[in-house]
Amino acid sequence: MKELTSYEGALCANCQAPLQGEFCHHCGQSVHSVLRPVHGLFEEFFETFLHIDGRILHTLPALFLKPGFLTLEYFSGRRVRYIAPFRLMFVLCLLSFFVLHLATDVIAQRIEHRDQRNSVVIDQGADFSQAQTAQEVRHQLDAKLETLEATRAIGNAAIVAQIDQTEQKLHQQANARLAELGAPARASSASKRSGDEPSDEGSDGTSKLEQPIHISWLPAFASQRLAEFDEHIRKNAKALHRGTITERREAWEHLEAGIYGALPGTMLVLVPMFALLLKLFYIFKRRLYMEHLIVSLHSHAFLFVSLLLIVIAGMLSTWLRPIAAWTGYAAGLMQGALMLWVPAYLLIMQKRVYRQGWAMTLVKYWCVGWCYFWLLLLILMVAVVLGLAH
Question: Where in this protein does the record put region Disordered (predicted)?
């Protein structure tokens, strides 16, 4: 009673309503002034942080371990102790994409190092002068070409041009030795391969990559923007497929920046679309669209925290295997268990929230999952295209 009576006779500075506590019951403004000493600001900051931290402790374990629990709590009106669904989903989305970005950077660095190691395998200075017969020259040439083809088969597109140049050099040296021995020259496989590739030139002699896109019914600025969009996609795709190591690295950086810049925005489109799917498949439940949206937010929040844990487990597995094999395998098993938990969790959540029999739940779960898969695939393709056009 002391807290209530201490504000007797005081009026709210904003709306002049009589105060009955620290906050005005009419407009919600606090009785405390924002003009305070610096230590008061620090006290308020730590109080807010600890309050949020307490909500995290209530929210994350329930989100990951109890399918549908947070959604049912939210429907029941018990919301204060938990983080709001949209804020929870958005923060986990950004955090999971940030960690995934780090993981892809590590993978890209390892691929680049592997390409550099494989480039060492390419024989740059073959010498056929020791061969005494034409058969020995051909045998040495076949052995060196097998090594190059094995390197090509790994899929190192960044050093394909270097491999072709080395093949041509090997054939030139081998043919020179064969000419000295009076034997016929051997045809170059690299020249045959390059002759089979389609030309990049159009019928007018200009490069196909340089031919701009023009759509007559579009405004000039739209056609120009579309042409630039197409040019960036072609250049980045060509650099990823047949570029040098430096060009491939730059194209990969452009692709990464574009994809991770577009993904959060595309996820904001995917969440209401998934809620619309739930609305269509559970139309006879007569639930509001907002209820399905909360289910979608909590489902995606779980997907993002699962993605975060799966990526972390994969990175731990990769790092720990060279040090202690059993810890790496344990992290790999944990990663597999997390992957299995994702579909099981979503099925149990759908069963608990919508309260239908297992047979009907399984049918709707499969239908919703099938539609969501193609919708997600479309969203990811759009993100990749935007990444290539970056």
Answer: 183-208
